[in-house]
Amino acid sequence: MKILVFGRGVIATVYGWALERAGHDVEFYVRPGRAAAYGETIDLDLLDVRHGVRGQRIAEKWPARYREALEPGHDFDLIVLSVQHYHLAEAAAFLAPRVGNATVLVLGNIWSEPLAAIGALPAGQLAWGFPGAGGGFGEDGVLRGTLLPSVVFGTLGQPPSERERAVRQAFREAGFRLREQPDFRGWLWIHFAQNAGLHSQALRLGSLARLAGATDDMREALLATRELLPLLEARGVDLRRHRSSVLPLRAPTWLTAPALAWLLANVTPARRAVELHSNPEELRAVCRDTLAEARRLGVTVPRLDD
User: Fold this and answer.
1) Which residue intervals of the chain are DSSP H helices?
2) Rounded to an integer, what distance in angstroms lies between the CA atom of residue 163 and that of residue 105?
3) Fewer CB within 10 Å of terminal CB in the chain, N or C?
4) Sheet containing 2-6: which strands, arranged edge to edge?
5) Burial of 28 by CB count in 10 Å (0-12 exposed, 13-18 middle, 19+ buried)?
């Protein structure tokens, strides 16, 4: 498969590397002038957990190929679009007249209506997914991250199309386990709310990493997320369809908070993911946009408001 990765963000880069390793032809689209600034290789320091809980350490200079223009007549089969939710509308507007015959995989957080978020991108050429990876670029330019074994794919009420099945197969061949969410809209919004709860405490503490081992702060994060459940219902999410996602939020925090705090402190992939997160703008934006929606709908969320 010929794949174009849109931008050179952390998630986009990690999955571009994994897909190329599986035999696919991968290029990056970057803004004019960026290719020379990025150089010919990407320094990677990854913990790859696809084939075992201990993970495999990957340290290499990956030769990356860039392009700074995209014409509608291109021959890419797949465009991987993985950007922060607040950049999605801009990226979709750029791609819409240039998508050609490619399938566009939207891979990441969404808080607005999914079909509204992608604007003029043709709905029949879309696939929806959520990554199991994280990390950040250090000041030395090295991408340090973790690649987890599963990727979430979903649909908006219809069975996967032929295009969507082809995207899933590419990820399956790259060694990923696939998790399906037939109500992907609802699942995305629940995940976004979970992030808002965690991020509210991370902003108070100064970083996500400080939640590791911090039982009291994790308890506040869980309670902040629990307060967002009525907001999700007000937006039309049927929480009964997502019992496994909601259960930890409704369980007693004396049980869940110590377990999650311990996990972040002691399980290497989880600890590494929070330690390497380096985008405070994302934390603020998730909390800001969640709070704005709660105020719009008149739902009281005192912890997030505080």
Assistant:
1) 10-21, 34-38, 88-95, 114-117, 162-173, 184-205, 215-226, 229-234, 243-250, 253-266, 268-276, 280-297, 302-305
2) 10
3) C
4) 66-67, 25-29, 2-6, 78-81, 103-107, 126-130, 150-154, 177-181
5) buried
Residue-level pLDDT at 269 = 86
pLDDT given for residue 5 in this prediction: 97
Enter the tokens of residue 149.
């074994």
Strand 150-154 versus strand 126-130 pairing type = antiparallel
- DSSP state, residue 157: S
Q: How many residues does the chain have?
A: 306
**Cβ atoms within 10 A of the Cβ of 130, count?**
22
The residue assigned the tokens 């998790």 is 179
- Which of these, 190, 192, 147, lies nearest to 171 by C-alpha position? 147
CB 42 within 8 A of CB 9: no
